[in-house]
C-alpha cells in the first residue's frame, strides 16, 4: 500500500512514508531471523531500522510544508 501511495503521488512525503514502512518491515524480519538463528548481534540492526522507521514516520506526520505541497498537487490533478 505504501508503494502505491508513492507511485500515485510521487512526492517526497510519500517516499518518506514508504521508507518508514520498509524500515519497520525490515526490523521485524531481522528480529525474527536473529531470534531463531541465535544471532544476537543482529539485534543492533533491528534497533537501528526500528529507530529509523520511527523517525521517518514522525517526520511524515509532522511535516506541514510537505503536506501542503501534496495538497496543492492533489487539487491540480
UniProtKB/TrEMBL annotation:
* Alphabetical UniProt keywords: Membrane, Transmembrane, Transmembrane helix
List membrane-spanning regions: 12-33, 39-60
Transmembrane helix: present as a keyword of the record? Answer: yes
**What is the top-level taxon of the source organism?**
Bacteria
Q: Report what the protein is called.
A: Uncharacterized protein
Source organism: Leeuwenhoekiella marinoflava DSM 3653
Amino acid at each position: 500500500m505504501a508503494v502505491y501511495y508513492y507511485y500515485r503521488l510521487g512526492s517526497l512525503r510519500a517516499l518518506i512514508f514508504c521508507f518508514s514502512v520498509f524500515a519497520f518491515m525490515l526490523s521485524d524480519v531481522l528480529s525474527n531471523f536473529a531470534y531463531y538463528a541465535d544471532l544476537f548481534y543482529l539485534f543492533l540492526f533491528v534497533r537501528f531500522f526500528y529507530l529509523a522507521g520511527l523517525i521517518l514516520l514522525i517526520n511524515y506526520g509532522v511535516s506541514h510544508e510537505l503536506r501542503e505541497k501534496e495538497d496543492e498537487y492533489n487539487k491540480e490533478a
